[in-house]
Amino acid sequence: MYQVSFKLKKEAPRLEIDTLTPDCLCLCSAEELKSVKIWRGKKEVPASEHFEVKGEPGPTPEETMVVIENCKPFVHYAGMFMSGGILKIKGSCGNYIGSRMTGGLIEVEGNVGDMVGEEMKAGKIVVKGNAGNYLGSAWWGDTTGMTGGQIVVEGNVGEMCGQWMEGGYIRVKGNAGDFLGVKQVRGIILVEGDAGYCCGAGMTYGRILVLGNVEILPTYEPDGTYEQLDILDEIFKGPFQLYKGDGAEDGKGDLYVRK
Amino acid sequence: MMAESMIIKGGIVYDPLNGVKGEKTDIMIKDGVIVSEVPSDAKEVDASGKIVAPGGVEMHAHVAGPKVNAGRTLLPGDFRRYYVPKTDSLRALVGYAVPTNYTTGVKYTELGFTTVFEPAMAPLDARHTFEELEDMPNADKAVFPVFGNNWFVFDCVKDNDIEKLKAFIAWMMTETKGYGIKIVNPCGAYMWAHHHSNVTSVDDVVPEYDVTPRQVLRGLAQANEELGLPHTIHVHANMLGRVGNVSTTLDTLKCVEDIKPHPSREQVIHLTHLQFNCFGEDENHRICSGAEDLAEYINSHPQVSADLGQVIVDVPTCTMTSDGPAEFFIHKALGPKAKWINGDVEAECGGGIVPITYRSNNPFNAIQWAIGIETCLLVKDPWRVVITTDHPNGGPAWYYPRVISWLMSKKARDKMIETVHKSVQDKTSLVNLEREYTWEEILICTRAGPAKLLGLKSKGHLGEGAHADVAIYPIDPEKVDMANQPEEIEKKLWADMVIKDGKFLVKNGKTITTERGRTYLINQYYKDEEHKRMLKDLKEHFQKWYSITFNNYRIQDVFAPRPQTVSINPIS
Amino acid sequence: MVEVYKDVVCTFCGCLCDDIEIHVEDNKIVKAVNSCAISRAKFLGHESNGERQVLIDGKEASLDEAIKKAAEILVNAENPLIYGLASTSNEAIRKSMELAEKVGAKIDNTSSVCHAPTLLATQFVGDPKCTLGVIKNRADLIIFWGCNPTQAHPRHFERYSSNVKGYFTQNGREDKKVVFIDVRETRSTSKGDLFLKIEPGRDFELMLALRALLRGKKLQKDVVAGVKVEDLEKIIDMCKNAKFGVIFFGLGLTMSRGKYLNIECAISFTRELNNHTSFLIIPMRGHYNVTGANSVMTWISGYGYAVDYSRGYPRYSPGEFSAVDALAEYCDAALIIASDPVAHFPKNAVKRMGDMPVVLIDPKPNCTSIVANVYIPSLSVGIETEGTAYRMDGVPLYTRKVVNGPDGVLSDEEILERIMEEVDKLQR
């Protein structure tokens, strides 16, 4: 696999690096690589002004790995529209990571901001730290969130994770904030820790699993217990109580909570 | 910058109103109008091998006002997907189905259209509509205030006081800078706002006022013809979007059959977006096309004109009308995810907005698609049928080239029929229709016709004294056989050059500058004694039922900074 | 000589009452008839606070210098923000949008700290609404949720809602049922037929429960958000049996836990009620033209607030381009128009404002003028200059000029126009 690395050397109040993806960089010559533009506020500047650029991209996105080193939370839009290859982010980064991506892998070592994996269709995002609000959710005014792919967050997630989700798999190893899976239509959300207020509100179909504590909404009806559950070939030991809802939407979603 | 003199040389000119049918002739322009002679230093514009036509006239497109803006609010994703950054000469262009006003103006110009009418304005929201129109560059514009559910109209009609109604119409046009009478689902929007129901025929009775849609239509049509407004009543009939509504539509047209047109014209009624009101009903109570019935009626009744409201399939768009119950019905039909805005306006009208994507594989939508073209092909007189998509209700106006390709080429139609649901083949007569529109007919349906129907004397033609609005398309009708090359039509009906009031707006298919268009409006009260009599009642009406004061109703002149007053010609 | 101006539009709250009578003597407003207490204070006290002197870095300066300086600040900044707009005319907002596009700024209005969740919810599900006159004529059930009209919109009851007589409600208050839902008793709540006191921050849950009940579901609890389920059933009965109901909601709903989800749920509830009867929902907007600010921004950019022009076309991202977030995180210059963020914004945003160049255009000096590098006084819309404003239900009204402003003071619109001319010169 070919590898290009960008090491942040100069800070700025806000950087947008939607151009630093395997899709945009593959086939770039060394010369072109230096002049790849990123946005700093209203100015379009060469990436080399803020990053130390090294390496050589491959002939296709799939054969290219892009590494952003020393990344900071003011760096936004990494991996937007990505269709293949690998994007490794060492450090934390900002909002809209992997937004509307259709393939490939994004790995973040630190924390990420809001709207990560927003409306993503396929691919995988792994976050080692915490994630902000609206993980895998729909964009403002759109009513279709993430439709496929996987997001794994090893820390906690913020509010409204999986809003309008229509497919794919979100796994949170820590706790989830309020309104987990609100308006969810399809897909699976698994939270290994606790979930916040109004979990599954407005859900119509789909599945939410909470292994920790959660307050069940009055609009959910209990509907049987399960000893164990099999999620994507992984066995989770129960016992689990199943709740059906959300009654407010005539929903038929499944909310499993470990007893 | 003064408009310069110019001479457009060598083009193939179509000017149907003046009988010019694709002749190689020169068009001369001076001081923003068409002339027969120009100074020798006039700038020469080479149009050889290209069609030269009058600027297009859009008679029915929802381009400005609160409901259009509400449509934008419902489609933020549309703005996220379609954008062009600003340039030195143009502002940013954003949005597609319901773009920003600026984008709308620029796109219409690039299509070769220089006049755009906004067909439904809640009079109470006039200021908002005019503010938006002011932000739409290039096109000359006008608005139709809605009357069909106005309580004061009901009062006049109930007492059969046509004189008072005439005074009210003239007053309303003047106060809200309107141009023509729009009637949307007469009595239906009232029934929706106050009784949570709808009218189902032209003879349903409104309880509190004891009037029927028939009375409202007849009253307004008679008042309109006697007042001599430039355009006939512009009618969105009852039962829009319901299976079998073609019978209601025919009843609507028959209502005004015996009303005498104003001496300046033959028509008394314009049926707008006919497609939505032309659904037949088959033996299983399912939708079929009602185009044959409607077209037959139009063919045999010269007092009727209509526009298509053609549906474009598989393109996300947004329905927006002043027909509250119809929009409620649509949102219910589309399921729980459909967004719905309702917008009732006190004592005047209602409204609703629902985003929609017509699906080619849906039998209902496919038949809707067929009905528009089918009717257009069945109506013999192109002067009385206008190409529209009821932008953005049927689809964005940016699909006009495609609509025209279906009309001009059976090949294009057949190709489309293969891709849409097969219901089109047995529920409409479209497959059997051989007619292919000629260039002349197309240019009548998009310019000369609508201009004539709207009573615009200086638009839609290239005769001496007409506004120098010229669209030049990169097609040589002698070299390209449209029936066999429909894809050429689609590509090349985006204008190569557009001149408006003698100034170049588009060159080489690109907008180079924007100008501000004029506003056509009526500014004239009816007879003094009738006006005063009406005003006495009206002030009381306001005091009682409106939430704003009478004095704050009239919109200020700043809202139409470049007015073009059109006079009314009452017959006494 | 007393001049009397009739049917003047009051430019304070979203009610935009247009029946005010203003008496002017020697270019001073001496009397305001029909005004509520707030409106009277606005009209009569309009000259009392603050000297309208152009200031650069706290020192007196000429208008020309200030305009030039403002243009320089905007052009030189990488992340400029334009904020405010809710208390000025549409004409000025249109100019601000043009300016934002020219200088690649973020532009946001005060709705981002009040009713933006309403706009967001509308983007997701729509909004069944009507003008206030329809309520006046028709409504026989009025629900006020999380708002306090007696104190925030004092003439709402008498002009538009519970106490007014209309076509179908000719006996006024007797023909109507009024319900208040709030977390505490207010001066308004005693005026209703029913008051539901709910636990703070649990509006969403209550709304969900109402929706489930409306669908005929059984709830799994007896008490939801501090309210007994039987009381909720009573509400549902009232709603279903009403001929025409309306929900008015305020910041209690938009700015409590759940934010736009609360509104989305309220709108969905209203939609579902339409399967039984007419039911509509209207936000109680605060500033007199905040509705206009959302509208104008929508028809120019497609989005109602939190818009960014840094790439030459509008982008939308609440939480990123909204003023509080932008100021707290990355903005490096701000133009504030007819607003006072320093008085209302969180500490970290205000702290950063102290470190960046700030331009303030406002009729009155305020807390923001303390940190502003450039202060340009302007004419007060609706008193010293005309302009369009939209009522809370979107009805557009044209505000009046009743007195002359001080010599040399321009309107917001003219100031922005002049700043744009300077920007053009700098960018050429």
Q: How would you describe this structure to a colleague?
A:
The complex is a heterotrimer of chains A (259), B (572) and C (428). With 259 residues, chain A is mainly beta. In chain A, 4% of the residues lie in helices and 37% in strands. The radius of gyration of chain A is 19 Å and the shape is elongated. Chain B is of the alpha/beta class. Chain B is built from 18 helices and 28 strands. In chain B, strand 4 (27-30) and strand 5 (33-35) form a beta hairpin. The longest helix of chain B is centred in the last third of the chain and has 18 residues, at 528-545. In chain C, helix 16 (367-371) links the parallel strand 19 and strand 20. Classes of the chains: A mainly beta (259), B alpha/beta (572), C alpha/beta (428). The interface between B and C is large, with 62 and 61 residues.
Morphology of chain B: globular
What proportion strand of chain B?
Answer: 15-25%
Sheet having the most strands of chain B: 7 strands, mixed
C-alpha-based Rg of chain A, rounded: 19 Å
Roughly how many Å apart are the termini of chain B? 45 Å
- Number of folding domains of chain A? 2
Q: Report the uncertain regions of chain B.
A: none
What is the typical, i.e. mean, pLDDT of chain B? 94
Oligomer: heterotrimer
- Tell me which protein chains meet in the greatest interface and how many residues each side has: B-C, 62 and 61 residues
Tell me the total number of β-strands of chain A. Answer: 17
- Report the mean per-residue pLDDT of chain A as an integer: 94
Class derived from helix and strand content of chain A? mainly beta
**Number of alpha- plus pi-helical segments of chain B:** 18
- Radius of gyration of chain B over all CA atoms, rounded: 23 Å
- Spans of chain A of at least 5 consecutive residues whose pLDDT stays below 50 are none
Outline the biggest β-sheet of chain A.
13 strands, mixed
**What percent of residues of chain B adopt helix (DSSP H or I)?**
25-40%
How does the overall form of chain A come out from the CA principal axes? Answer: elongated
| Tally of separate helices of chain A | 2
- Spatial order of strands in the largest sheet of chain A: 5-1-6-8-9-10-11-12-13-14-17-16-15
